[in-house]
């Protein structure tokens, strides 16, 4: 390997490694905040002017549900990922991903609030491969219809552009009525709820670097962040460590 090529490799390894290490550190900080903060009752969260963390049962708001594009499940939120085969057996690359979400209610024995999920990370518990489309095939008509009904909230052009001469895999997870959810990073919004059942609207808090809605409880939410952080740190070290070693050879 020529010296200019080695220099480029070192720069790339250090840069990518540094980015992954920083991202991993951010996820671990978020894990720490979630795992050490106190879950509030919904009634208390409704009065919170800072960063709220609460749990409860999802209830739909009339007229605010939709049919998830790839399964047709009636939902208040869904996440999707389109993947295609990559080099190596059993490996995939992500073509596109995103979320579709509507306002919904979260209730416990103390009260009920409306959650505006705008700007939040949605973490369903049932994300899995739902649909496989073969080479030179197109998405089924019912899927294309549901995609068109939610076109303002997803990357429709990229999803349809994925219909190429390669196999595609469509993953989807949903948040539906009756799901137990954990919400972190919300604050009370200065507006009237659209449902009479709710006492307040909670939305993303400006003071929080994380607004996350997880199907499950605090343990599920914190565990997800811990795993993500450790994976990113591991990948970062795999690049940054050798990058430092190679850089030292120039000294």
Overview of the molecule:
The protein is built from 5 helices and 13 strands. The chain has 251 residues and is α+β, with helices and mostly antiparallel strands. The chain folds into 2 domains: 70 residues; 180 residues, no CATH class. Helix 1 runs antiparallel to helix 5. It is flat. 34% of the residues are buried. This is RING-type E3 ubiquitin transferase.
Dominant shape: flat
Tally of distinct domains: 2
Q: Can you summarize the main beta sheet?
A: 5 strands, mixed, barrel
* Strand adjacency order, main sheet: 1-6-7-12-11
Mean pLDDT: 85
* Rg of Cα set: 21 Å
Tally of separate helices: 5
Work out the helicity level.
25-40%
- Runs in which pLDDT lies below 50 for 5 or more consecutive residues are none
- How are helices and strands ordered from N to C? HHEEEEEEEEEHHEEEEH
Class from helix and strand fractions: alpha+beta
Number of strands: 13
Beta-strand proportion: 25-35%
Please report the distance between the alpha carbons of the first and last residues: 17 Å
Give me a quick take on this structure.
The chain has 251 residues and is an alpha+beta fold. The chain is built from five helices and 13 strands.
């Amino acid at each position: 390997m020529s010296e200019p090529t080695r220099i480029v490799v070192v720069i790339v390894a250090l840069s990518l490694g540094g980015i992954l290490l920083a991202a991993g550190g951010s996820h671990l900080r978020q894990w720490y905040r979630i795992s050490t903060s106190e879950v509030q009752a919904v009634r208390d969260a409704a009065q919170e002017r800072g960063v709220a963390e609460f749990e409860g049962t999802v209830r739909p708001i009339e007229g605010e549900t939709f049919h998830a594009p790839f399964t047709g499940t009636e939902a208040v939120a869904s996440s999707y990922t389109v993947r295609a085969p990559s080099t190596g057996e059993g490996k995939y690359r992500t073509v596109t991903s995103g979320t579709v979400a509507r306002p919904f209610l979260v209730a416990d024995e103390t009260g009920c609030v409306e959650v505006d999920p705008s700007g939040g990370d949605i973490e369903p518990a049932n994300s899995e491969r739902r649909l496989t489309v073969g080479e030179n095939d197109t998405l089924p008509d019912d899927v294309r219809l549901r995609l068109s009904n939610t076109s303002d909230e997803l990357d429709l052009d990229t999803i349809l552009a994925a219909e190429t001469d390669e196999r595609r895999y469509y993953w989807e997870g949903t948040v539906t009525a009756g799901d137990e959810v954990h919400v972190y990073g919300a604050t009370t919004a200065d507006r009237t709820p659209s449902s009479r059942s709710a006492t307040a609207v909670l939305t993303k808090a400006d003071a929080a670097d994380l607004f996350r809605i997880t199907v499950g409880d605090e343990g599920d939410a914190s565990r997800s962040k811990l795993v993500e952080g450790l994976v990113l740190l591991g990948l970062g070290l795999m690049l940054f460590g050798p990058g430092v070693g190679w850089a030292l050879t120039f000294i």
